[in-house]
Design a protein that fits this description.
Layout: H1 2-28, H2 35-53, H3 59-66, H4 69-97, H5 100-111, H6 122-167, H7 173-180, H8 191-211, H9 227-244, H10 251-270, H11 289-301, H12 310-321, H13 325-335
Helix pairs in contact: 1-2, 1-4, 2-4, 4-5, 4-6, 5-6, 6-8, 6-9, 7-9, 7-11, 8-10, 9-10, 9-12
């Protein structure tokens, strides 16, 4: 039994150490990744939700079910952390109590500061105090972590909600340009300011979501809205603008694109999705030329001033999109984002959803009598 208890103590130290590292990486240390405990919990929770929603054919029903995934992940992670400390300290107390059942009861009493079981000795007292401190720290840190998450969520969703009027629901890059009609009302053009706003939005998301990856699972309040698909639509609109209207080349859409695909790469690294830092601008992309033609035709239909044909603009657009398409599609696939146009495949059979457009409500003109 002595050898077994020694092995138990060694495993307990490893378990307590791993749990502490996971807590620090998830809640305290900036620029940290999920770690193997966080990744394991995320994988299990994700598989549970995939199984729970795989028979749902209506996207809104699926979105409603998936809205709880982030909360379940946070609660599961807290349970795993507390469970790790509970088991770890129980094995540390075992040699002093000579009873594994009592060791677990004492560990539970100390973890939640219930005090229903007295320590069995001086060494046990020290371990109980340490465990009680760690238990309080983990619970308090998780509670303090929530306001940070929701503050970042609210900052993110403000611009995403505003995007619905510009780019439709779900958002689509060509729709954004079509509704703006830049070139027809050039004296009222606000696209430079819009792209500047989304450049800063991308930087904020890169910082907050890379440090707290669970934010990627926080879904937008409206089922057809998505922060990731919104970013993709904004980047597509900037790339499309530069491709079809070279005379209107501006710094703002270029900086928005640069910050956008930089943010996506940061998020990919945080969750273990690799990306190419310097892709070949002539490389193939998943979006087809036929799909691109449909987007260009949408602009032509509303009178947008197009300076290049779809065939002429395609190499330029593809040269921009190769920087962000693969990582955006993988993130959208992993987070079950709304299946919008130009947004890639999902984990369930679906048809891309075009943006909803408000019906025309022009007043009937006539002569009053």
């Amino acid at each position: 039994m002595t050898v077994v208890r020694v092995i138990g103590v060694v495993l307990a130290v490893l378990l307590i150490g791993s749990t502490t590292v996971s807590v620090m990486r998830s809640l305290i240390i900036p620029r940290a990744s999920l770690g193997f405990i966080g990744k394991g919990v995320n994988t299990v929770v994700d598989k549970v939700f995939v199984l729970a929603t795989h028979r749902m054919t209506d996207y809104k029903d699926r979105d409603t079910a998936l809205a709880g995934q982030a909360a379940v992940y946070l609660l599961s992670l807290l349970v795993v952390w507390l469970g790790g400390y509970l088991v770890g300290f129980a094995f540390l107390l075992w040699p002093g109590t000579h009873d594994i059942g009592r060791a677990f009861r004492e560990s539970g009493s100390s973890m939640f500061t219930l005090g229903f079981l007295a320590p069995s000795g001086g060494g046990s007292t020290a371990l109980d105090v340490i465990e009680a401190g760690l238990g309080l720290f983990v619970i308090a840190a998780q509670i303090g972590y929530l306001p940070t998450l929701y503050a970042a969520f609210n900052r993110r969703e403000t611009e995403v909600t505003l995007l619905g009027a510009r780019a439709g629901s779900p958002p689509w890059g060509p729709e954004l340009l079509a509704r703006t009609k830049w070139g027809i009302y050039g004296d009222r053009d606000d696209l430079p300011g819009f792209y500047t706003t989304w450049e800063r939005w991308s930087a904020d998301v890169a910082e907050s979501h890379a440090n707290y990856p669970v934010l990627m699972r926080f879904r937008s309040p409206q089922p057809l809205s998505s922060w990731l698909v919104g970013l993709l639509a904004v980047m597509d609109s900037a790339a499309l603008l530069l491709a079809i209207a070279p005379s209107r080349d501006r710094l703002e859409p270029r900086l928005c694109l640069r910050m956008g695909f930089t943010a996506l790469r940061h998020l990919g690294r945080a969750v273990g999705i690799p990306s190419t830092e310097d892709p070949d601008p002539d490389a193939e992309i998943q979006l087809t030329f036929e799909e691109f033609e449909v987007g260009v035709q949408r602009l032509i239909d509303v009178g947008f001033e197009v300076e290049r044909t779809a065939a002429e603009a395609w190499p330029h657009f593809r040269g921009w999109r190769v920087n962000y398409e693969a990582i955006a599609y993988r993130l959208a696939y992993a987070t079950d984002a709304v299946p919008a146009l130009w947004a890639g495949p999902r984990r369930w059979p679906h048809e891309p959803m075009p943006p909803l457009r408000p019906p025309s409500r022009l007043p009937t003109t006539g002569t009053s009598t």
